[in-house]
């Protein structure tokens, strides 16, 4: 009798172990994998939601910046836009004691199809403080301008007289016209 009950106990134990193995492989394993996948998706969605909330919260600042950009954009007429940027650069340079040696405007297409850029290369000579004040004027300007590059070179041994090569870009909300 003891061997019969031992066999029965072994069969029940083996059956339970096989049942647990099947439960693990067919139900528990896939359920845990699905749970891990859902957990990572929840984390991703929470980050996206947090980013979205940040965008909504910064909406007013973004709209105000966009309004200032639109207000400061160059006029739609190319010649008026060129004249406005060049005369502004000349006025600021004169006011800050910078001697202009060259101004070269060039139109180029912007990445947006409904905009164009007026790139202006400014060559000047003067002192470091005068150049700093000129850059300050560019920064304070209501025009939609961006400084693309600045290059300073010393023109004397003491470094008191400098040359400035400055590339400034102005934004115009009008596509670039085809040249005839």
Characterise the protein shown here:
There is one protein chain. With 180 residues, this protein is α+β, with helices and mostly antiparallel strands. The chain has two domains: 2-57; 74-172, Ribosomal protein S6/Translation elongation factor EF1B (Alpha-Beta Plaits). It has helices at residues 2-57, 59-72, 78-96, 128-140, and strands spanning 99-109, 116-126, 145-154, 162-172. A four-stranded antiparallel beta sheet has the order 1-2-4-3, covered by helices on one side. A hairpin with a 6-residue loop joins strand 1 (99-109) and strand 2. Helix 3 (78-96) crosses helix 4 (128-140). The longest helix is centred in the N-terminal third of the chain and has 56 residues, at 2-57.
Which structural traits does this protein have?
single chain, 180 residues, Alpha-Beta Plaits, alpha+beta, 57% helix, 4 strands, four-stranded antiparallel beta sheet
CATH topology of the largest domain: Alpha-Beta Plaits
Number of strands: 4
Radius of gyration over C-alpha positions, nearest whole angstrom: 35 Å
Helical proportion? 55-70%
Sheet with most strands: 4 strands, antiparallel
Return the domain count: 2
Q: CATH superfamily membership of the largest domain, which one?
A: Ribosomal protein S6/Translation elongation factor EF1B
Low confidence ranges: none
Report mean pLDDT, rounded to a whole number: 87
Q: In one word, what is the shape?
A: elongated
User: Structural class per helix/strand content?
Assistant: alpha+beta
Q: What's the number of helices? A: 4
CATH class of the largest domain: Alpha Beta
Strand content: 15-25%
